[in-house]
Amino acid sequence: MKVSECMTRDVRIADPDETIQEAARTMAVVDIGFLPVGEHDRLVGVLTDRDIAVRGVGAGNRPDARVRDVMSAEVRYCFEDEDLDDVLDNMAELQIRRLPVVDRNKRLVGVISLSDAAADEAPHAGEALCDIARPSGRHSQSI
Questions:
Q1: Which regions of the chain are under pLDDT 50?
Q2: Closest CA to 5 of 72, 79, 80
Q3: CA 64/CA 42 separation, integer angstroms
Q4: 126 DSSP 8-state letter
Q5: Which sign, positive or negative, has the C-alpha torsion 135, 92, 49, 121?
Q6: What is the pLDDT of residues 58-96, one digit of tens each?
Q7: Is 54 exposed, middle or buried, given 0-12, 13-18 or 19+ CB atoms closer than 10 A?
Q8: How many alpha carbons fall within 13 Å on the CB side of residue 107?
Q9: Cβ(46)–Cβ(23) below 8 Å
Q10: Cα angle, residue 107 at apex, residues 128 and 12 outer, rounded to 5°
Q11: What share of the chain is helix, strand, coil (3-state, %, to 5)?
């Protein structure tokens, strides 16, 4: 199965200059915990609810702090035409639950999550979840 067959296509994109409160409100309305961050037609980062909690609130930032100040700037992604099992293996190795999906021109076309894969009963979704959930030591959520 290809990533394009089970990814979420309707993706909200955060602006790096919007506030973390605005981004959190979007997450609440859409019921998601992950937003790709785009600027000038480029993917420049990702923002998770954990980024807002740890790098934002936990570090003493106010709700008007900017997304760019708390986002993860190192963007991991996959291609829409990749084999889902390979992507799940990569997600397990990196211990991440969601990835932006791009086309071969590196344009954002969706997001793939473990729940997307599990909903389509991908054989490796359970294995990937077990690997992602394993203790990994210190995380890169530096404050």
A1: 132, 139, 141-143
A2: 80
A3: 23
A4: H
A5: negative
A6: 999 999 999 999 999 999 999 999 999 999 999 999 989
A7: middle
A8: 4
A9: no
A10: 70
A11: 35, 25, 40
